[in-house]
Design a protein that fits this description.
By secondary structure, the chain is mostly helical. Helices cover about 55% and strands about 5% of the residues.
Amino acid sequence: MSAQQQAAAVPLDALPRIPVDKDGPVFREPWEAQAFAMTVKLHEGGLFTWPEWAAALSAEIDRAQAAGDPDLGDTYYQHWLKALEGLVVAKTDLSADRLLSRKEAWARAAERSPHGEPILLPEDERG
């Protein structure tokens, strides 16, 4: 069974929902919500199964704790993003160097974009 077929076989109520509490979304920063959304979208697109995702996130949290992360909850989405980046590199032809280059290009574009306007990469940085 392909990853896409496995993803389609997962019941909708088993998929993650945006974490909320009685006051609303639990994301502290917009990038955390974006990382969550990217993960769900890549899973829906069949890049990885949810068990693969859970294993990658768990391994990343274990590595961080072994390196001294006190696991107070404030670094959770940093681990989330690192696990997502690892899966993307492992499951696509995107190299870690190319991923870093894209992150840096995106950061430069974000810095020069007025607040509330779309962030656009110049042609020479889109590749």
